[in-house]
Amino acid sequence: MTASRSLAIRTPAELIAVVPFVMGYHPNNSVALVGLAGSRMEFAACHDLPPPEVSDADAELAADAVADVVTRQQPTRVVIVGYGTARRALPALLRSAEAVRRRGVEVFDVMRVENGRWWSYACPDRECCPPEGTPCLPGDSVIAAEATFHGAVALPSRKDLVAQVAAVDGAERAEMVRATERARRRFTDLLAEDLTAERCGRLIRQQGKLAIRAAEKCYRSGRSLEPDEIAWLGVLLVDRSVEDLALDRAATAHEWQIRLWTDVLRRVEPAYVAPAGCLLAFTAWQAGFGALARVAVDRAIAEEPQHQMAELLHNVLGFGLAPHMLRRPGRAR
């Protein structure tokens, strides 16, 4: 959730209720660092609690890395929320708070959430923040409804978020295998029209532009592409110029674009996953859904580790760059 979808936070309980919507899933055994600009939540970065066997030095390095990501966003202050037992979460909370303070950013509050209750470690008022904790807001609270209205979702876990970009299987996969073979033959026939490199390049770009525009029109109207259309688009996107065209057209993200590239990513065969993963990652990042962008680019890299755009987006997300800092990640040539 970026500034364009930022929400006014009035109480600590409201902040805790909104964090899952900013992340896209309900954190568990993790630490979320929430950036505020005045009373408005601007972003959140989340990392897993270090396992018990990790040394203090390594845990501090991890906290420093996340603090670097947070401070690049230039928040006026930060709230740190841990999810888990006091024994596991509290040391990580304190390390994160100290890392943020060392970078000159105010830590407004340090909180922990466990079993539907939350605790503040910055508030000394026992009536406001009792030792037994304070109940979290219900799932249908006003602030949760406001986040949903803005288009945010909060899945049960990060595992569920990963499942949203996983490949389809069963009958759908079998149909996509057949459709991909037809698309490959169609691509071969296209190249056979003229074997000169310049002419082939123009033909591919022309077909790519037509396929991208047809896909956009389809999803803008609320429909979905057929298997043959998905497969053909996937094959064409392997060409760098076609992928660049699609990236340029994704610079202003819309919900239907996220749906489009999610469908393409899930349905194309493995050889065509990387461009689709990059397009979903770029679109989700532009729209403020950083967690979705991360799992999409992770899938792209898993299938094609040397894909240049996937590597670039991986670095953009890793450094915590906001879309306004880099409107269009240029491609290495």
Automatic annotation (TrEMBL):
Classify the source by domain of life.
Bacteria
A Pfam family that the UniProt record links to this protein? DUF4192
User: What is this protein's record name?
Assistant: DUF4192 domain-containing protein
The species this protein was found in: Actinoplanes cyaneus
Q: What is the lineage of its organism?
A: Bacteria, Bacillati, Actinomycetota, Actinomycetes, Micromonosporales
